Amino acid sequence: MGGSLDTTWYALVKQGIVTDECKPYAGEAHECQFECNNSQHSKPDFYYAKNAYSVFVPFNYEKTVRAMQEEILAHGPIEAAFYVVDGFTTYSGGVYQRTAGAEYQGGHAIKIIGWGVDKSTKVPYWLVANSWGEDWGENGFFRIRRGYNECGIESEVATGLIKA
């Protein structure tokens, strides 16, 4: 668990990244072997971010939530970091809310793809894609309470634009 959103986005600006087909995610860092383009022995294609920026309004979570929503509407998913606490790893559905006394386990970076309000509980939530596989949560996704900076999810948000 963990990661640095700013460092990752700035690396996308400066160094770029190859596709998943070229370099599948394997859970550990290792260099591309330059055998990526349709099994040819050639240098892989790298893709770069045009820029990187934070989506956060200091000391104002209401404006931060609005800025996050506007960013998703304008440019698509955004990244956020949050605190994983006891019980989160066994999440299986519903709108996640930290239980009182739950202890900090580590940080985790995720992709926020949308938002909504739970029909039965009326709790506002972020819809989030996780990297723990389709067998976890709601088919690899989870919903976490929106507007309350639940587990710090609204305090470290970053994104960028991809070069065309």
The CATH topology = Cathepsin B, Chain A
What is the CATH top level name?
Alpha Beta
The radius of gyration over CA amounts to: 17 Å
Low-confidence stretches: none
Helical amount among residues, as a percent range? 10-25%
Strand order of the largest sheet: 1-7-2-4-5-6-3
In short:
Helices cover 15% and strands 29% of the residues. The chain is built from two helices and seven strands, in the order H-E-H-E-E-E-E-E-E. The longest helix has 15 residues, at 61-75.
Structure in words:
With 164 residues, this protein is of the alpha+beta class. It contains two helices and seven strands; from the N terminus they run αβαββββββ. A seven-stranded mixed β-sheet has the order 1-7-2-4-5-6-3. The mean pLDDT is 86.
How is the secondary structure organized here?
Blueprint (H helix, E strand, L loop, with lengths): L4 H10 L34 E6 L6 H15 L2 E8 L9 E2 L7 E14 L6 E6 L11 E5 L11 E6 L2
Features:
2 helices, 7-stranded mixed beta sheet, alpha+beta, 164 residues, 7 strands, globular, Cathepsin B, Chain A, single chain
